[in-house]
Specification:
This protein is 49% helix and 7% strand. The protein has 389 residues and is an alpha/beta fold.
C-alpha cells in the first residue's frame, strides 16, 4: 500500500480512519526500515532443506510478530482460518511459479523457508516483506479488504525478497522504482500463470482485491494504463505516470515516497506490458525471462536506462530480431531509448567496463607518482645549479 494513499486518508478520513492510517504509516515506516537494515547487513535465512516449506503464524491482531502463534506448517492440515489458508496457498503458488518457470530454489535460491504472519495489527491495511518474512494485515473491511486475498500482492511482496537476494536494488529514486516495478511485474505474472492466462487475457491490474466496493477503484496499480487504477475522494487519484515526460521528481524521504518509488514504477511497468502484449502468448515465457535475467545482471544502483538497455541486450542474445525490436518499441513508447545512441550494457560488457575503469585508475595513479618524482628531480637540479632564490 503506497504511503500517499494512507496520507490522503489521514487528511480526509473519519477520526477512526485517520487513526488507522497513522498507525499504518508508522508501522510501515518501521517495517521498511527493518527491510533496508536486513538487506544492508545480510540475513541468514532459515533453510528447509526439503523443497517447499511454509510456516504460518497468527499475530492475533497485535502490531508485532513477537509471541505470534504457529498455526500451520507444510505438512499440517488447515485450521480453518481464511487468512492463514490464503497466505499458505498464495505463498505456495509463488514458490511454485519461481521453481517451475525460473528453476529458483525459494526466494533466496538456497531453499529458504517461507514464514508468513497473518492478522498483523488491528485493521492493518497493508502487506509487507520485511526482509525476512511476509506480514499481512486484515484491512478495516470498510475501505481496505483482507490483503491475503490478493495473489499478485503476495507475489509482489515475495519478489521483493527475490530482488533482495539478487540485485538488491536500492530503495530510492530510479533503482527503488525498479525494485517496485519488478515486484509488480512478477506479482502479475504469478497471477497470470496461476490462471493460465495469455497476455491478451490478463487484466494487468495489481491488487484488485484490496479495495472494498466503497472505494472508486479497480486496483492499486494498472500496468496497462498507469494512473487509472483508482480515483476516490478519500484516497485520491492514482498518480502513476506511464512516460518519462511525466516522471515525478520527489525527495528521497519517507514523505516523498523515497523519490517516488511507488509512483515512477509505472513507467517500467508500462514498458513490460507493452512488450508482453506486442509479442503475445503467455507473458512469463519470453518477456518474463528477459526481465528475470535483467534482474540477475542488475546492481543496487541500476537506473531505468541501464535496466532497459540490459533487457535489450538480453533479448538480442536469447531471442530473435523481431523480439528485440518489439522490446525497443516498448521502451521507446515510455520515453526510454535503447539500442540507439545509448551504449548497450550486458553483464559481460559491464564487467569489461569495470575492469577498464580500474585500469584507468591504476594508470592515473602511476602517472601521478611519475609526475611527483619528476618534480622532485627538477627541484634537486635547481638547487644543485644554484637557481633557488
Amino acid at each position: 500500500m503506497p504511503p500517499y494513499i494512507l496520507k490522503n486518508l489521514l487528511d480526509k478520513g473519519s477520526p477512526d480512519q485517520r487513526d488507522m492510517a497513522l498507525k499504518a504509516l508508522l508501522s510501515a515506516t518501521a517495517l521498511r526500515a527493518d527491510r533496508r537494515f536486513v538487506a544492508r547487513l545480510g540475513f541468514i535465512a532459515p533453510v528447509s532443506g526439503a523443497g517447499k516449506q511454509r510456516m504460518i503464524f497468527d499475530c492475533r491482531n497485535k502490531p508485532t510478530t513477537r509471541n505470534a502463534v504457529l498455526v500451520r506448517r507444510e505438512s499440517d492440515r488447515s485450521n480453518g482460518d481464511i487468512a492463514a489458508i490464503e497466505a499458505f496457498d498464495g505463498v505456495g503458488t509463488t514458490y511454485d511459479f519461481y521453481s517451475q518457470i525460473f528453476h529458483r530454489n525459494s526466494i533466496d535460491n538456497a531453499g529458504m523457508r517461507l514464514d508468513s504472519y497473518v492478522h498483523y495489527g488491528e485493521k492493518y491495511p497493508n502487506a509487507m516483506w520485511d526482509g525476512r518474512r511476509m506480514i499481512f494485515g486484515d484491512g478495516d473491511g470498510v475501505l481496505f479488504s483482507r490483503l491475503t486475498q490478493s495473489l499478485d500482492v503476495i507475489g509482489h511482496e515475495l519478489t521483493h525478497g527475490v530482488t533482495q537476494y539478487t540485485a538488491n536494488l536500492e530503495y530510492r529514486g530510479q533503482s527503488g522504482a525498479l525494485n517496485e516495478s519488478v515486484s509488480d511485474v512478477f506479482g502479475s505474472l504469478v497471477k497470470q500463470w496461476s490462471l493460465s492466462q495469455t497476455a491478451a487475457q490478463a487484466d494487468w491490474l495489481v491488487g484488485t482485491e484490496c479495495w472494498t466496493p466503497d472505494i472508486h477503484g479497480d486496483a492499486l496499480r494498472s500496468m496497462k494504463n498507469p494512473g487509472s487504477a483508482y480515483n476516490d475522494p478519500l484516497i485520491g487519484k492514482d498518480p502513476q505516470p506511464g512516460h518519462m515526460r511525466d516522471y515525478k521528481l520527489l525527495p528521497e524521504t519517507p514523505e516523498g515516497d523515497m523519490g517516488g518509488v511507488h509512483i515512477n514504477s509505472g513507467i517500467p511497468n508500462h514498458a513490460f506490458y507493452l512488450f508482453a502484449s506486442s509479442i503475445g502468448g503467455v507473458a512469463w515465457e519470453t518477456a518474463g525471462q528477459v526481465w528475470y535475467e535483467a534482474l540477475q545482471r542488475s546492481k543496487k544502483d541500476t537506473n531505468f536506462d541501464l535496466f532497459a538497455n540490459t533487457t535489450y541486450a538480453i533479448a538480442g542474445e536469447n531471442f530473435d530480431t523481431s523480439t528485440q525490436q518489439a522490446l525497443q518499441a516498448a521502451w521507446d513508447e515510455v520515453g526510454i531509448r535503447v539500442g540507439k545512441k545509448e551504449k548497450i550494457l550486458t553483464g559481460r560488457t559491464a564487467a569489461a567496463r569495470e575492469r577498464s575503469n580500474e585500469d584507468l585508475a591504476t594508470s592515473i595513479e602511476r602517472l601521478t607518482r611519475q609526475i611527483g618524482s619528476l618534480r622532485d628531480d627538477i627541484e634537486a637540479l635547481k638547487q644543485s645549479s644554484g637557481h633557488v632564490h
